[in-house]
From TrEMBL:
The keyword Oxidoreductase is annotated on this UniProt entry: yes
Alphabetical keyword list: Oxidoreductase
Top-level taxon: Bacteria
Lineage: Bacteria, Pseudomonadati, Pseudomonadota, Alphaproteobacteria, Sphingomonadales
Record's protein name: SDR family oxidoreductase
Length: 268
């Protein structure tokens, strides 16, 4: 088995995935990225600056494609995968009645099924490099307390949180660490998307108007490194996420009152 540690990252063609890829790559890890965006992946790997990289185009909704992606990456990385970062995800906002069946199913399939399929496919590889290997999942501050105007997205991120907690128990005996990141609004291209097909108002605009903080993506990359090497089950990233986690635990009545009073759903 090769000595160089290896990480495979979905959604590696941009945003958080790209930031984590370059961060681990700069620390001499073998980096693999998966995405549906080949050009984005090529750009990510070009930023790393060494040749220990690999790109695999696939859709996280395809269970068999997961096996092919990880088998191919393990071969390229010298027979090992130390970390699988279940990061691919899409936003969806607006009130639930505005969301189309197609939008709801796509978000559930990518954000939730994709994570479950990734975990299944990752298990045999992470078991080989245990103890100390890690499945890292991207949850969200929306997985701390349900967000008005993002019921579907919040549901998927609560689901990712639950998957993380469940597998933390299931895989402890195997020596595989399971962790999640819970970022708030991160400065990535996802903020420039519209939350649903019924609106042309971008997410970034709504966040800015609400006076919420947008966290630099480098903070997520640093948090990912700390999560992989630390003991914390869930890592909040950004001021908004940290405040939400504190308030949801210690001031739930106030959070509920503020949420009900301030709700103007994304997309309206």
């Amino acid at each position: 088995m090769a000595d160089r540690k290896a990480i495979f990252i979905t959604g590696g063609g941009s945003g958080i995935g790209r930031a984590v890829a370059t961060y681990f790559g700069s620390r001499d890890w073998f980096v693999g990225v998966g995405d549906i965006d080949q050009a984005g992946m090529d750009e990510t790997l070009g930023m790393i600056g060494h040749g220990f990289t690999y790109a695999h185009k696939f859709d996280v909704r395809d269970r068999s494609a997961w096996d092919e992606a990880l088998e191919s990456f393990a071969t390229a990385a010298g027979g090992r995968i130390d970390v699988v970062f279940n990061n691919a995800g899409i936003p969806i906002g607006g009130s639930l009645v505005e969301n189309s069946t197609e939008e709801i199913e796509r978000c559930l399939d990518i954000n939730l099924k994709g994570v479950l399929f990734g975990a299944q496919a990752a298990y045999p590889h992470l078991k080989k490099t245990a103890p100390g290997s890690c499945l890292l999942n991207t949850a969200s501050a929306a997985g701390i307390y349900g967000t008005p105007g993002a019921s579907v997205y919040s549901a998927t991120k609560f689901g990712v949180r639950a998957i993380t907690e469940s597998l933390d128990g299931e895989w402890a005996e195997d020596g595989i660490n399971v962790r999640s990141l819970m970022p708030s609004f991160i400065d990535t291209p996802l903020l420039d998307h519209t939350p649903n097909a019924q609106t042309n108002e971008g997410i970034r605009q709504r966040v800015t108007e609400a006076g919420l903080e947008i966290t630099p993506v480098l903070e997520v990359a640093q948090a990912a490194w700390d999560a992989v090497h630390g003991e914390k089950l869930h890592t909040t990233v950004g001021k908004t996420a940290k405040q939400m986690a504190f308030a949801a635990r210690w001031l739930p009545g106030r959070v509920r009152k503020q949420t009900r009073a301030s709700a103007r759903p994304l997309g309206r």
